[in-house]
Hints:
Layout: E1 2-8, H1 22-31, H2 38-57, H3 62-72, E2 83-84, E3 93-94, H4 96-108, H5 128-138, H6 142-162, H7 176-188, H8 192-205, H9 220-240, H10 256-260, E4 267-273, H11 297-309, E5 319-326, H12 328-333, H13 350-353, H14 357-367, H15 378-381, H16 384-390, E6 393-397, H17 399-406, E7 417-423, E8 428-433, H18 448-459, H19 465-476, H20 483-486
Parallel strand pairs: 5-6
Antiparallel strand pairs: 1-4, 2-3, 5-7, 7-8
Helix pairs in contact: 1-7, 1-8, 2-4, 2-18, 3-4, 4-5, 4-9, 5-6, 5-7, 5-9, 6-7, 7-8, 7-9, 8-9, 11-14, 14-16
Amino acid sequence: MTVIHPVRTYRSEEPLPREQQLAWRIAEVAADPVEVEDDVVDMVINRVIDNAAVAAASLTRGPVVAARAQALDHPVSRGGAGATVFGCALDEHTSPEWAAWANGVAVRELDYHDTFLAAEYSHPGDNIPPLVAVAQHVGADGRALVRGIATGYEIQMDLVRAISLHKHKIDHVAHLGPSAAAGIGTLLGLAPEVVFQAVSQALHTTTATRQSRKGEISTWKAHAPAFAGKMAVEAVDRAMRGQTSPSPIYEGEDGVIAWLLDGPEGRYEVPLPAPGEPKRAILDSYTKEHSAEYQAQAWIDLARRLGSARPELRDPENIRSIVLHTSHHTHVVIGSGSGDPQKYDPTASRETLDHSIPYIFAVALQDGGWHHVDSYAPERAARGDTVALWRKITTTEDPEWTRRYHSEDPDEKAFGGRVEIVLADGTTVVDEIAVADAHPLGARPFARADYVRKFRTLAEPVLDDIEIERFLDLAQRLPELTPAEVAQLTIVARAGVLEAVALPKGLF
Length: 508
């Protein structure tokens, strides 16, 4: 059973008991000792594998190298054993907040892990790096880690269902800070009072504008969720030491809703599990087959199908126009409705191209597929026939696809749309797709074998075969792992992989 928690702003002179505040309700959910159901455990394992896969593929990319260098320049804190860093040796540790930072950047860099879209956007797998880091630091076992991850997913996705941040140009990681803090609270078995303070402080310190995803998108896009995870670890530490936080953080007269979201008249209804109710939100999320913004996943599948069936569509000389009829979100975030000229710029950054559905559709149409490196290569983006085709592609909002995007019915919810291609001779090609092939309702839903295959594909260039098998064995036994085994839940790069990349120097 789900309990709907009403949320609004309150004037300072209006009493709002702590027990009626959203942060407290989140804390109660985190402190509920309910067990994790078997199908949820299986999906947690899938997502741990998925995170490691995309982290492996990003180990030598600039943002990940920089974040790893920062983490390794910080020694293990005195209160525990420390935590591992993706790519590094098993006995090389740093403090948990810096491990959360480095590993969070590695997971997010390629925009290739799981997603949940509702009133807001999210990548709930971003909860996993801070939770693993804390589990390793304190010596938690696999069962505790699974419970913490289930909470992290539940809280972030429940907030995403109800509270839109992007509408007010606030970055979606503002839901991640509270969820990671709540997940750590579950992992550690903390009292609601402590989790309440940590959730409030994590939210307070992780609100930022969406300029990180606008125009010429910078490397900060990969760092933003890692920063939220790092702040969550630090917020929990302060709360455990008895420190308090701004309250009520959501509902206060000068709180998040009043000044960053819908304002003093704002009203939300946040669905949260009832006491004793299992945390099952992770089952409503979905991963990516392709390294691109989630709203591009279905379009890649449609484009590769069209290009393979009708090769003449790949030649811009044969095309007059291509219009993607889609949801409001897709149109204004990654489509021509954003008004960003950078989305049509062949010299744009990888992060910008990742948020350009005209570019992505053009390349997938021409190549019959998508590659996490080759499809973003500067020489690929600059190819003359691609640029010509790319600039004939626009998006438009279709109210029906917007309605389906926001539908609460999982059988109806959709992230694709309808394409109308006008050929040079005036004839048209029309096709549509609702969800990506890898979606639970798609043509080829992802299962454990697909997650394992994705991991092997992305890890083989940088991990030895024995290391691949070692990690997969641990991950697939996650709820049974001892603290010593949790301490080894990471990936170690093949000799020479990390050493081949110069570490940038900074302040630390």
